[in-house]
Amino acid sequence: MAELGKLESAVMDVLWRASDPVLVRDVLDAVTTERALAYTTVLTVLDNLHRKGWAVREKDGKAYRYRAAGTREEITARTLRRVIETSSHPDLVLMHFARSASDHELHILRRVLDERKSEA
User: InterPro entries in the record, alphabetically (predicted)?
Assistant: First the structure.
């Protein structure tokens, strides 16, 4: 998760492991870091993740419950989409990516392209 800092990544790992939306306190209790964290630090990280579109929150009384805005794979794909869309030369980005792709990655891309052709 190159777009996230170390603490943000640790918090996202907690959200991805959670089966239900969690409170800040739940995240604080579950996150593993090298140092003790303050409640307000975790709250700030969750607010930042919400603002960035990585986490979704819903009101629960006076507090919020947080959950991941998608699976790790979905959010990674959205991040790649943003990189491509914000590039001044998206065609070159895709070309360089395709040239660097492994045989397995190329196989997956071909399969998806074939599926799209058959749907058209």
Answer: BlaI_family, WH-like_DNA-bd_sf, WH_DNA-bd_sf
User: Per residue in 60-103, pLDDT tens?
Assistant: 999 999 999 999 999 989 988 988 999 999 999 999 999 999 99
Tokens coding 26: 């739940």
Residue 1 CB coordination number (10 Å)? 14
> CB of 72 within 8 A of CB of 16?
yes
> What six digits make up the tokens of 30?
């579950």
- pLDDT the model gives residue 92: 95
The CATH class of 6-68 is mainly alpha
Nearest Cα residue to 77 out of 109, 38, 41: 109
Count CB-CB contacts under 10 A for residue 14: 20
